[in-house]
Write a structure and sequence with these properties.
about 160 residues; single chain; mainly alpha
Length: about 160
């Protein structure tokens, strides 16, 4: 009977060990199922993030291409503006030279005008002196003729 009890206890212990192993196996299966489920969720999230990233990448590529076109247009405008600026600088230099020449001409003409005015003033003074001398001579001549007429008129009378 003792053997039977011992066998029964051994059987119960074996069953308890099997129960523990089975419980551990169930826990491991639950962990694996949870791990697998969690991993699938993570994969789904990563897939969604990858799709979003691809969509963003596509949008960024389109924006990048638009920016490249805009940059090319800006460079073209810059080159055109640089060309016009170069032309304008050349025109400004030409105009500065022309203004300088005109100033020189105006200065020369002003000097000539001043010289001419000075000569005219000298000639005017000379003519006024000559006129004054002639007037005095005419006045003296008139006076002399008047005196002669008076003396002849008195003598004839």
């Amino acid at each position: 009977m003792f053997d039977m009890i011992e066998t029964l206890v051994r059987g119960l212990r074996g069953m308890a060990q099997q129960h523990d192993l089975f419980t551990q196996l169930l826990q491991t299966a639950d962990y694996m199922r949870t791990f697998s489920s969690r991993r699938q969720e993570i994969e789904n999230q990563l897939r969604l993030r990858m799709e979003e990233a691809e969509a963003n990448l596509s949008t960024m590529r389109e924006e990048n291409e638009a920016l490249r076109v805009e940059l090319a247009e800006a460079k073209s405008r810059e080159e055109s503006t640089a060309g016009r600026l170069h032309e304008a600088e050349g025109e400004a230099a030409r105009l500065r030279d022309e203004v300088s020449q005109l100033r020189t001409e105006v200065s020369n003409e002003k000097k000539q005008k001043e010289d001419l005015q000075l000569r005219l003033d000298v000639q005017k003074e000379e003519l006024e002196r000559e006129f004054a001398v002639e007037r005095e001579e005419l006045a003296a001549d008139y006076q002399q003729k008047w005196m002669i007429r008076l003396s002849l008129g008195i003598a004839a009378a």
